[in-house]
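My current task is to audit a protein record that another person submitted. Please read both lines and tell me whether the tokens look consistent with the sequence. Do not assume that whoever made the record got everything right. I have pasted the whole thing underneath without changing anything:

===
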Amino acid sequence: MTKEQEQKLVLKIADLLRENKKISNQLKELTETNKKLVKQNEKLDKIISSLPPDVLPKEASSQIKSRTARFEMATVLYADIQGFKKIAEQSATSDIIDELDQIIFHFNTIVEKYKIEKIKTIGDAYMCAGGVPVKNITNPVDVVLAALEMQDYLNELKAEYESQNKKFWDLKMGIHTGPVTATFSGRKKISYELKGDTVHIATRMASASEVGKINISIMTYELVKQYFACDYHGKIPVKYKGDLEMYFLKRIKPAYSEDRKTGRSPNQILWNKYLLRQFTDLQEIVLDRLEKELPKYLYYHNFKHTIDVINQAELIGYGEGVDDESVLLLKTAALFHDAGHIIGYDEHEYNGTQLAREYLPKYRYSQEQIDRICELIMATKLPPNPKSILESIMCDADLDYLGRSDFIPVSNTLYKELKEQNKIGTLNDWNRLQVKFLSNHQFFTKTGKSLREVNKQMQIERIKQLIED
């Protein structure tokens, strides 16, 4: 690597570090806000449950039981199933209702598959939303994939009916992404009602669509255009918002589809990019649990260390030129590599693999990916002995602090952690152990060596000066 290339790499890494630090601070703020809101809801539930049934008027009681939440990014799909009149000319009303029930039932199955929430069915209109009631960053992609599957299903049924000279339902769909206010009520079976411009615009998108087509707003288009082919469809006036651009959703782009001709089935490349985007949601959930459940004596192996290793795994991974899937595996392994401290200290790597196997199937990770992630977690067990480039990156990310300017204050937190558990003697003993460990340690990747090795040697000399004979 030339000096010029090294300088460019250092600048790129510095930019990524600043961005990651900014994201980490935002994540912490959101986590704190969420914790406060959860506590407030818990207090309200306790107050309501402690009140006798006749204390509040019936109307007030029902209002309290209904909760309202604001979602800054939800994707609403409105499907207008058309053709009742023309089908009624040749079919009994009961048969028409059965056909419609069959369609709605299958739509519900698709919605559940993509973890989207069905909002309501009114006659032959169907509405669902992604990002509600569980916030997630992938909801535009989820809803678009569901829409394509709904369209395919109805097209197949229509072809079957037309082959028998029977008339069948037509479908017009509209999709829009934006903020919504959700009111949800009930305890055993929760129902949702959405309000806001986003719902209104989704219905306008459906009205402005054409039979058999999916019309999406410019907002949704901007969030999915990387993966899906779309055709510009013009503009529609929207109250208080001016003219809103629309696009017809066509298919998954060939580069991201298993079937390059039809563009209906996502391939592994698309899923890897999807999982990288989704990682933000997974990270927030796991870090929140670490902050709540990790023992207080973990001054080093805390959620801050986890964030640090995630950032370094990504930076070193890109520095080594690995692909998107490898970066995904590295970041996920970094997220869980110390999570096992929730269960126990000494076997925390193995415990971390068990937590990964518990969480990751719910987030569309394949079994092969989960196995590889668990191998990367176990690679961090000391002494490091990586057997692949990804394991080398993981080991360097985990011990990156050894070659940083903040080495001594960071290592002191590890000493404090071990001392509190009676696993180490005096500070002088610790410094001797540190010199021995640093002298035997090596960075395994080219990126790690170029960025940290020189500074690590300086740390050895610094610690030697602290040792008392």
Notes: The beta strands are 67-82, 117-122, 125-130, 170-185, 191-195, 214-217, 228-238, 242-252.
